Amino acid sequence: MDLAYLWFFIVGFLFIGYFVLDGFDFGVGMSLPFLGKDDTDRRVLINTIGPVWDLNETWVIVAGASLFAAFPEWYATLFSGFYLALLLILLALIVRGVSFEYRHKNPESKWKKWFDGMIIVGSALPALLWGVAFANIVQGVALSENHIYTGGLLPLLNPYALLGGITTLVLFFTHGVVFITLKTEGELKERARKLAIKSGLVTIVVAATFLVWTTIAFGSVLSGAVAVIAALALITAYLLNLRGREGWSFAFMSVTVATAVLSLFLALFPDVMPASNNPAYSLTIENASSSDYTLTVMMWTALIFMPVVLVYQGWTYWVFRKRVTRQSVLAAAH
Amino acid sequence: MEWLDPLALARWQFGLTTVYHFLFVPITIGMALSVALFQTAWYRTDKVHYLQLTRFFGNLFLINFAMGVVTGIVQEFQFGMNWSDYSRFVGDIFGAPLAFEGLMAFFFEATFIGLWIFGWDKLPRGLHLATIWLTWVGTVLSAYFILAANAFMQNPVGFEMNAEKGRAELVDIVAVLANPIATNQFPHTILGSIMVAAAIIVSVSAWHLSRNQNLDTMRPALKFGLWALLGSGIMMFISGDSLGLAMVEAQPMKMAAAEALYTTSANASFSVFSIGTPDGSSEIWSVRVPGLLSFLSTHTFTGEVEGINDLQAAYTAAYGPGDYAPLIWVTYWSFRWMIGLGALAAFVAVVGLWLTRGNRNPGKWAWKAATWSWPLPLLAMTVGWIFTEMGRQPWIVFGLLKTEDGVSPGVTGLEVLISLVAFTAIYGVLAVVEAKLFLKAAQKGPAPVEMTKVDGSDEEQPVLVGTVY
């Protein structure tokens, strides 16, 4: 049973990886209408994540599969319960991914405009809905004795969950814009920095409200302490961006996303999906997990392969470490 | 209301999204291998036409890859969304190969494909070549794990029932991964994927050659495609035969349903074609090969093949009253179409190699036939999977859980209907966009490679730039 607790944190780690990485992809996608003045700018913006968005998105597939394997009850309840929200996320991820790959296949501006729109919607919708979903998990939902979600769609759109959605929306937006300051240069970079100053302020206010609400209503001492770290990291990232230290600013944005997600997982602990109607119906780490044998097999697999994954993904980021410039995009036009 | 039945809608949705997803999967697996081979040829010979082929088919590969990626996420989420009771029942076992697939295969593909697309001018040539091979390894590993997961549904092994939790639990991961259905299905699937890609390469090159254009690239591409199609086609029959034996062992009902064989027979014949009563239970006219079904099932012409009626009686005794036969007309015809279309594709390769021997130029009709032969292996694989999955019914996990008991109890028919409509609409639009892009890129032909002198050297090098959005 101890292994189940370990797996709770492995699943948490995978979701942290997903939100830190695909989080800035969402932000870059959402920034197109704000920063993409002309087609070349938009291509620079998309190219900052071009080589990596697919590997970033893969983190959610691995997180989902690990959830399925380690906590089948949680996976089954969550995915069937949050049906329409997940459907929207899926549709958004589909149009976003296809748009990245297809927008440059045709030089017509109408074609590109259409796919730009799809990228914006396909980035904003998941950024919003992941927050709504996770806030609902932390808050708890109505479950039957057999762990079946009984609430329907409307109860999921409560104030706390919507605030959670807005939090991830603005947090990922700022995360992505700071990423752009790190990956571009010149006038575009400067515009991104100024945009991050504005959006950063909104993010601080919204995220602080959400984390305080979470800590007071659902949190523990530990989750509260981690939430404080998240808030401090966010403010630090903001100040670093003010001074134009984009590398460090992005690093602290990543710490912010990671600790904010960790704080939610800690607030959840030791439940995985609390039942708001009757605590006895709650899904917990213990009653939702797989057998010890399965968790052992999976643990060894994760211990062996996760470091390998981190090494080759880190190397990939190193290969593509250079800033994307207007010149390089224009030179490669085809 | 009948049409809001969550079970029927969830089954239609699974069928639709899976068939659709699987149009892109074999192209990805087969085309990644072909592109890797073209690039290896360029690496070793420095001949520019191999580089052109690498980039040309690489482009077609990528147009298709994007669709495979985005439709794949739906597959994983769908188990929990529409089949949550199934997920609860098998998650302890079924989740592990999915997690392996993500950790070992999906990360691999997704990372190295990005390095391949954008790494042309950033990585040394040898390392860049390695990235496309690693991408292919990722696709193949992914195929193995998902086939192992599927094999558990066909032939559950390596588990014990936990009565208290009401679920199957994993006790032997090696048995699950070495499931004979998986080890036999794997080569069958990979070879089929190579056939699919080879047929597309044949079709595209035949189209250009029939117009007498791009001869320096399209001639070698045609030869490559024809030989790959023939080679994989021959091995496909061998792998199909051994998969058939494993299937008879695990699911005798599926083989009986493939032939609509109602009574247990020794020396059972195989009908190539038949006309029967609408319910398929009795036959009006047929063309039969004596002993062939016995041979397929037992490798002897006189072996006994169990019939549907006896199996139905045996299953009723074992699992209680119920209908344990799949839809016979579906299994009967999908089995025949799978074999027929696959054989036709291999036949195209033989004829094509004969007609183009020693650089001969065949007639217009032959180019036309070759150009239109690309769907053959893809359709064969599609009906093959329809046979495999429909032949498993009424079970979702053979002998353990029925499909009707796997559906999500908390999800309403309306919700499933909404998602079914949404997926159908978006998949339909994307199919049109994808087909247009694929056709346009295929008809444009390989781009010429510019040569420039690199600083400090008299040798000319091809200009290489990374793909930029």
Could you outline the blueprint of secondary structure elements for this entry?
The complex is a heterodimer of chains A (about 325) and B (about 475).
Chain A: H1 2-35, H2 39-49, H3 53-70, H4 72-81, H5 83-102, H6 109-139, H7 159-183, H8 186-218, H9 221-242, H10 246-268, E1 271-273, E2 283-284, H11 285-288, H12 292-319, H13 326-331
Antiparallel strand pairs in A: 1-2
Helix pairs in contact in A: 1-2, 1-3, 1-6, 1-7, 1-10, 3-4, 5-6, 6-7, 6-10, 7-8, 7-10, 8-9, 8-10, 9-10
Chain B: H1 6-45, H2 48-82, H3 84-118, H4 125-154, E1 159-162, E2 167-170, H5 173-177, H6 180-210, H7 215-250, H8 252-259, E3 265-266, E4 270-276, E5 283-289, H9 292-298, E6 304-305, H10 308-319, H11 328-355, H12 364-371, H13 375-390, E7 395-397, E8 401-402, H14 413-444, E9 451-453, E10 460-462
Antiparallel strand pairs in B: 1-2, 3-6, 4-5, 7-8, 9-10
Question: How does this structure look, described?
Answer:
The complex is a heterodimer of chains A (334) and B (469). Chain A is mainly alpha-helical. Chain A has one domain (2-325): Formate dehydrogenase/DMSO reductase fold (Up-down Bundle), CATH 1.20.1630. Chain A has 13 helices and 2 strands, in the order ααααααααααββααα. A two-stranded antiparallel sheet of chain A has the order 1-2. In chain A, helix 7 packs antiparallel against helix 10 and helix 8 (186-218) runs antiparallel to helix 9 (221-242). The radius of gyration of chain A is 20 Å and the shape is globular. Chain B is mostly helical and 469 residues long. Chain B folds into 2 domains: 2-248 and 329-462, no CATH class; 252-325, no CATH class. Chain B contains 14 helices and 10 strands. Chain B has helices at 6-45, 48-82, 84-118, 125-154, 173-177, 180-210, 215-250, 252-259, 292-298, 308-319, 328-355, 364-371, 375-390, 413-444, and strands at residues 159-162, 167-170, 265-266, 270-276, 283-289, 304-305, 395-397, 401-402, 451-453, 460-462. A two-stranded antiparallel sheet of chain B has the order 1-2. A two-stranded antiparallel ribbon of chain B has the order 3-6. A two-stranded antiparallel ribbon of chain B has the order 4-5. In chain B, helix 1 crosses helix 6 (180-210), helix 3 (84-118) runs antiparallel to helix 4 (125-154) and helix 8 (252-259) packs across helix 11. Chain B is globular. The model of chain B has no long low-confidence stretch (mean pLDDT 90). Classes of the chains: A mainly alpha (334), B mainly alpha (469). Chains A and B meet through helix 2, helix 3, helix 4, helix 5 and helix 12 of A and helix 2, helix 3, strand 2 and helix 14 of B.
